Amino acid sequence: MGQGFFLTFEGLDGSGKSTQLRKLAAWLESRNHQITVTRQPGGTRIGDRIRQLLLDSRTENLAARAELGLMFSDRAQAIAEVISPALAEGHVVLCDRYTDSTEAYQGGGRQLGSEIVLKLHEAICGGLQPDLTILLLPDFDASLARARRRNDRTKKSGKDENRFEQEDEAFYGRVYDKYREIAARDTSRVIAIEGDARIEEIHQSIVKVVEEHLRR
Question: How many whole angstroms from its chain centre is CA 75?
Answer without folding.
Answer: 11
